[in-house]
Design a protein that fits this description.
Layout lengths: L6 H13 L6 H14 L3 E5 L2 H11 L7 E5 L5 H8 L3 E5 L10 H7 L4 E7 L8 H8 L6 E4 L7 E2 L2 E2 L6 E5 L12 E5 L2 H10 L8 H6 L19 H32 L5 E3 L6 E2 L5 E5 L7 H10 L5 E2 L19 H9 E4 L7 H15 L1
Parallel strand pairs: 2-3, 2-4, 4-5, 5-8
Antiparallel strand pairs: 1-9, 6-7, 6-11, 8-9, 10-12, 12-14, 13-14
Helix pairs in contact: 1-9, 2-9, 3-4, 5-6, 9-12
């Protein structure tokens, strides 16, 4: 992945610096409104990272020690870590082999008396079947939070991922399609939640620093509850606003590149490429392929051959339960998760990827397949 950044982003960041207001301020508020409108949400709350967004969402819901949260192991470890930050126990559920997302069946099997939430990941930009998972959880009053870190520009049942969501967390890390360097966002439909989330991101302060500085009269703030330092800067938000203007064209280009990969790889035996599900469209934040057991080389060997030819591919999505940091977490069988993390790799896909570069990638794979 290469971030798609240009002179407009540089000028926007410079203007923020020249304005003298570089901390969380008016550009952050503008970015929150614009981002929420883009994904069909009512409120946006900008924060320092998607991990911070996940942490805030769980903390706001009161999830804590003794509680359980259903999560996929097949996700960047931040998904699991956020649950542990609040003292709760992650309960790993298996995923669908085609979408790499939780299924209603795997979620239902993981629910228990201590379940306080389900953290549904739209993995690699692939939309998860939110309605089906909600149908499993709603009879028990269990909220479904969305880890939409990679999903800006993806759609679900004709709407943007994030449309009408209870709580969705987003990432603006440089690997993401829309980047602010670092940064994240929470979107929600609940105005009271939005107010409290803004308070929690700023040490539980009763009035934001921006509002305090804008006031003509002194304001003596109070600290109403335990909060965090999870603010975004106006410099980041200035870049994010430019990136939002580019988004439609970037998504279109990524989907074109992804479809070309699918065409070029269609006849490679023993290889399957990611594709849109029936209920939505992916932004192809990650374009992954999986190798059948009978493929002539294993995943790691294919990565090595690609690297030898100057191609920077990477292993497929990690499985948190296999990492040393999660060795203390008990879990049941996760056969699809373990197969996927062992058999998949992510191919280069970025806005300026050329036909010739794609053909170079495919040539290495075809040679390995022979």
């Amino acid at each position: 992945m290469k971030p798609y950044l240009g002179e407009e982003e540089a000028l926007a960041a410079a203007e923020a610096v020249r304005s003298g207001w570089i901390a969380q301020g008016p550009r952050v508020a503008d970015f929150e409104r614009a981002f929420a409108a883009e994904v069909g949400a009512t409120h946006g709350v900008a924060v320092s990272s998607c991990t911070a967004a996940l942490h805030l969402a769980l903390a706001m819901l009161g999830v804590g020690p003794g509680d359980e949260v259903v999560v996929p192991s097949l996700s960047f470890i931040a998904t699991t870590n956020a649950v542990r930050y609040v003292g709760a126990r992650p309960v790993f559920a298996d995923v669908d082999p085609a979408t790499a997302n939780l299924t209603p069946e795997s979620v239902k099997a993981a629910l228990g008396p201590a379940t306080r939430a389900v953290l549904l990941v739209h993995q690699g930009g692939m939309p998860a079947d939110l309605d089906a998972v909600r149908a499993v959880c709603e009879p028990s009053g269990i909220p479904v939070l969305e880890d939409a870190a990679c999903a800006i520009g993806s759609t679900y049942r004709g709407h943007p991922v994030g449309h009408g969501s209870l709580l969705a967390a987003w990432s603006f890390h440089p690997r993401k399609i829309l980047t602010t360097g670092e940064g994240g966002m929470l979107t929600t439909e609940d105005p009271d939640w939005a107010v409290r989330l803004r308070r929690l991101r700023e040490h539980g302060m009763s009035v934001s620093a921006a509002d305090r500085h804008r006031s003509a009269q002194p304001i003596l703030e109070q600290y109403l509850e335990l909060g965090f330092n999870y603010r975004m800067t106006d410099i980041q938000a200035a870049v994010g606003l430019v990136q939002l203007d580019r988004l439609a064209g970037v998504i279109q280009r990524r989907r074109e590149r992804a479809e070309r990969y699918r065409t070029l790889l269609a006849d490679v035996p023993g290889l399957s490429a990611v594709a849109d599900p029936a209920y939505g469209t992916s932004n192809f934040q990650s374009f992954w392929v999986t190798l059948a057991d009978h493929f002539p080389v294993d995943r790691n060997e294919l990565l090595r051959r690609l690297a030898e030819q100057g191609v920077s591919a990477r292993r497929g999505i990690m499985a948190a339960h296999l990492e040393p940091a999660c060795a203390d977490l008990e879990h049941g069988p996760l056969p699809v998760t373990e197969w996927f993390t062992r058999s998949s790799l992510i191919l280069p896909l970025f806005h300026e990827l050329t036909d010739q570069e794609q053909e170079r990638v495919v040539a290495v794979i075809e040679e390995a397949a022979r």
